[in-house]
Design goal:
By secondary structure, the chain is an all-alpha fold. Among the domains are: 1-82, 434 Repressor (Amino-terminal Domain), CATH 1.10.260; 104-215, Tetratricopeptide repeat domain (Serine Threonine Protein Phosphatase 5, Tetratricopeptide repeat); 377-469, Serine Threonine Protein Phosphatase 5, Tetratricopeptide repeat, CATH 1.25.40. It has 23 helices and no strands.
Amino acid sequence: MKGDAVKRTAGRPRPAGVDVSPEAVRRARTEAGLTLAELARGHVTRGAIHLIETGKARPSMATLQLISERTGKPISYFVTEPSAQRRPEPAARTSRRSPGASGWPEVSQLQTLAAAREIKALREAAAQLTTSAKDSYARAHAYYYLGLAQVAGREYGHAVESFRMGREFFRQLQDPWMVVECADSEAGALYNQEKPEALAVAQEALARCRELRPMPVSTEVRILGHLGSIHAARLEWNEAISCYNDAVERAGVVRDLSRIARMYQDLSLAYQGLGALNQAADYSQRALGLYEMQQNGEALAYVENNLGMVLMKLGQLATAERHLQASLAAFENLGLERHKSNVLLTLSDLELARSDAKAAERYAQEALSLAEANREQLTAAKANQSLGLLAAERHDSEETDRRFRAAIQLLTEADSKERLIECLRNYSQALETRGDRDAALEQLKRAVEVGRRPLVEVAEDMAAGWRAS
């Protein structure tokens, strides 16, 4: 019979096992979306994991490493004694225990609140613990959980600072697993703010993750997904596809269906960027199927918009509208405001494809207002471009210039070179339609300069030109 929790070998004493928190093992498994059998697969029996979770058996170090890798949690998360590898603290602080252990009720409380999604209570408890904690171990976790609560509350700027503080405390504690968690979470908060430095932070998180032993595969998959999203936001489609494909391959190791569905959705967006619409539609349908099976309403809201976008580009306007309206209804029913502006922009494009300029402008204006309210800089820039092109269609030169200049300024502030180049080309097209060939050529020249010179220099030249005109 397999399994170190149930197996005995004649004439050989069974290993003593590692002292772990049974509740921490159970919580990590459920948070990772794994069944007992999935966590045990290929190494121990389902019953062995059950015995560990109920405190009736202790895992060997090999089994604990397996649990760590498949749940994406550091070993320090499970053990009930301080790691021998951690730097010793002064005598008054040497009894350091992992989350979930009885010696750390404050940190255990934060874990419980996070798992229950009690965001307000989590934020209050974590904020209080950052100042009341009696040692740096508890304080490090307080900053980490405070950051998670701030992300849930869309306080991304504050979350970045919390994760940075947590990362520094964990670095001092020589806990590389939690350093990675903080770095990845920081990158996610920066990405939600559409900050260009998100890429470097995510790349550092991935490099550090791959140095861990054991290396948590689910964490690697998550970071690869974040990197893919960051590359996609920068219109770096080949890099995005590479990250997503790696993530899908690695996610199969832990059978993480939710993450695979998310990667399919992101692959669809990346293939759209490359113009490979049939591949994009295929991946979007795969994602939709997995999300429907899991009854994930929020994820379905996003993937319905994505599929509608692909079908619209393929000319299937009626089918596209059904998916887009389903997406918009899901956003409204779930009370989701962030990224709802993307659905409105897709509906604007759909109406434009139907030659209904008034409806297209109404959706684009609504998208712009929502993007500005949610501080979605890149989406606001795209909405301004849409309104600029619509103004050009009705020969409103002043409004066209105003909208494109607003978009150019937003993209410059966001340091989004690829999107800025695309915007300048669209502006050039609008100017060409107006009959102003010299101005159109000037925008094309600036698009070339953006790829060659520091963005700040090009921005200064553009601002000087606008003042002169």
